[in-house]
Predict the structure of Dipeptide epimerase.
Amino acid sequence: MKITKINVEPKAAKLKEPITISLGTINHSMSAVVEIETDEGIIGYGEGSPGILITGETLKGTTECIQLFEKQLIGVDPLDIEKIHSIMNSVAAQAPSAKTAIDIACYDLFGKKANLPVYKLLGGFDSSVKTDMTIGLDKAEIMAEKAKLAVSQGFDTLKIKVGTGFDADVARIKAIREVIGSHVNLRLDANQGWKPKEAVNTINHLAQYGIELVEQPVAYHDIEGLAFVTNHVSTPIMSDESCFNSKDALRLIKDRAVDFVNIKLMKCGGIHEALKINSICEAAGVECMIGCMVEETNIGVTAAAHLAAATKNITRADLDATFGLNEVAIPGGVGLNPTSMISLSEQAGLGLSK
């Protein structure tokens, strides 16, 4: 099989409602939708969803980078994943969202060629994934109402955005816990919003509300600060922005800086690199969560769900981006209706088709 053409279409669509995190507000999904055509007539679908607040990428830049990749990838076998990534790395440093678009499409082709769903190719541990629901930053009473709605929709785990200050964050979690009761798991995500000592004080105070874990409490580059927090609280700490790739994962593990690692395809460059991160963590006895960017469509979320289902060490999932969309990018895969249990199709590849 050889790549004959790579089509890319930039798409921006307004979300059902904006999502605010400590870094800023996100109003639109952003996706460079890719179709890789082959000489066997099989088409693979992927997407690059740049999250400018996290990766610093833009939709225009991601689209242009994919077009640069095409010039070097024509005639290459899309099943040669290692070679594909080597070529992309020679064309562009970083650019994880652009690389993810190609990577996802290649794994989709891999599944279609093998006539197997991608999760089977990646390990086949399970065929479904349980996800949480994210509650964005807002006034405490508004966040509490949104949390109550999510629980009524069947979610028993919520990820609550925090990181704007002790009093406001405590008020949010207190209000949410009061309306949802004690049976719902709460994960907190500060998106780098606290200083290390502030994080320790806030997390220790919030422990009374039954917190499963806290994600990225301090600045992404402050690994010492991250380790300080991990070592001074009883609540488990998870990295997000501090871990883009397998090299980051290795440093976090070596420094014992976190208890869990959040993998996102758009941060690391796709499934190929995500598997490396998970293997490093698994060898060290550190479980992973699979996450997604708010900007993603059903293409990226579906690929992440296949990876999560396939691997035993990815024990948690935050794959709710499609629930904020008004329409899917390509029919198939994870849908728009909020559901805590994502069941994967047995169709070949990612189950996406026009």
